[in-house]
Amino acid sequence: MVGTMRLAFGGVIVLLILWLYTRSNDAGLRNAAASSRAPASMSPEFKTLTQDMEAQRAKVMQLTQLVAKLQGSARMSQPAAANPAAAPAPVLPHLRGSMSPEFKMFPCISDAEAARLAKTHLVEPENGAPRPECDEVGLCACPGDTWIFDGRRCLPKKGSQWESAFKTLASKWKEVPFSLEEYAENTTSHVNTINKEGRVVSDDVGELSDEALLKQWDSISPRDTFTSYYASTYTGQRVLDIGSGMARQTLRFAISGAYTTHVDIYQGNLNIIRRIAKMKGISDRVTTIKIDGVEDLEAKLSKVAMFDHICAFGSLHHMPAVLLIPEYKTLRSHLRVGGTWLQLAYPINRMGPEMDFHHFGQMTDGERTPWAEWMDSGKILKMHKPGKFVVNWCGIVNKDEFVWLELIYLGEALA
Q1: Which of 20, 194, 346, 350 is the most exposed place for a label (fewest CB within 10 A)?
Q2: H helix or E strand, kind and range, residue 211
């Protein structure tokens, strides 16, 4: 009886938190969350937006700490309320960075619309393959653990490149983006690149002199208002950068005073990060970790302290969802309650009607890309279960190009 009452009481508290959060998360705060601070100067309007965002974060922190205190642990005992991102969000404001033209973020689509679009991609099974099942947020899966859903159908896992998932990823992601994105109305251009593709093999970049490497990295590292805002709020905090590549944004966080840990599957990428950190004089705040799989990730993260923030900038969507879920779980176990999950991915409305995830990856990241899953807030929340998150904000750049979102972690659901 006592245990039942404790679970019921915990559930009431969680629902109260989410109700208060939803009430407070109005259009002004969503707009503030998508804005960011240029360190050199700040307009009165921009200063107000930044202060509103910081006040919103403080509210969520106070509420999550209250739950942990009342329950005696950081674990949640009841499912979260309906996804706050399911309803259309207000249009987020124009943003202007010191090196980037104005661009616009649009509302993320609803879970129902994502589910509808996901089903339009399905085709009839062939050769005895099972039919995939899709849920209310558009997350589709094949029965059992011997099949992989490729965005259209179920394919056998046996004999596929996904039997050795991290080797497959490493064969591609030694090649990383190496240009600066500039955003204009409904388009993105790549500048300051050293080749027409805007991508390089990190081992080739590693052959540059220190002077040439630093000059090139400085020319492609974003200084837009989005990056500047998070760099300013992460000062003094611990940030995990998963699938770091060249760490074009996250090293900016370290330069501004954050303690960053960069995790990647290719050593050449990490070598570049260490060289840049040394030349910037921030080696004492920068750690690199090479991993070969999810178990290796857990073993190495278990030796370091918990993180305040996890960043996945274009990384946690490049293998099948069924294989990503264990990685999400491992990462989540190293994020403190009240911490944030900041992710960049591709929205479903960018995916062509007859594309599978293999061809979608080739379109978004080049012909050698093995896979790209579409992502949105509802799908990511579902993949995190039994972890509990709420959506702080979600926006799409240039209508269908990238989806950016920030989640706040509330803990795990008890069995």
Answers
A1: 20
A2: helix 210-220
Residue 62, both tokens: 């106070």
Residue 88 forms part of a structural domain:
no
Pick from 333, 357, 347: nearest CA to 394:
347
Last residue of a domain, one of 44, 78, 112: 78
The conformation of residue 179, written as its DSSP 8-state character, comes to: S
Q: pLDDT tens digits, residue range 207-242?
A: 999 999 999 899 888 877 788 889 999 999 999 999
- The Cα 184–Cα 399 span in angstroms is 12
Task: Give the separation between CA 379 and CA 384, rounded to whole angstroms.
Answer: 9
On whether both 215 and 241 belong to a single domain, the answer is yes
Q: Are 217 and 206 in contact (CB under 8 A)?
A: no
Crossing angle of the two packed helices 267-280 and 210-220, in degrees rounded to 10 = 90
How many other β-carbons are positioned within 10 Å of the β-carbon of residue 66? 13
Query: How many C-beta atoms surround the C-beta of residue 95 within 10 A?
Result: 21
Preceding peptide of 326 cis, ω within 30°: no
Same domain, yes or no: 184 and 130: no
Residue 98 lies in a domain: no
Q: Where are any strands of DSSP class E within 346-386?
A: none
Q: How far is CA 235 from CA 231, 250, 383, in A?
A: 7, 12, 29
Do residues 154 and 148 make contact, with C-beta atoms less than 8 angstroms apart? yes
pTM for this model (two decimals): 0.78
Tens digit of each residue's pLDDT (9 = 90 or more) over 243-261: 999 999 999 999 999 999 9
Q: Are residues 33 and 140 in the same domain?
A: no
Give the domain extent around 134: 122-162
Distance (Å, rounded) from C-alpha 121 to C-alpha 307?
37
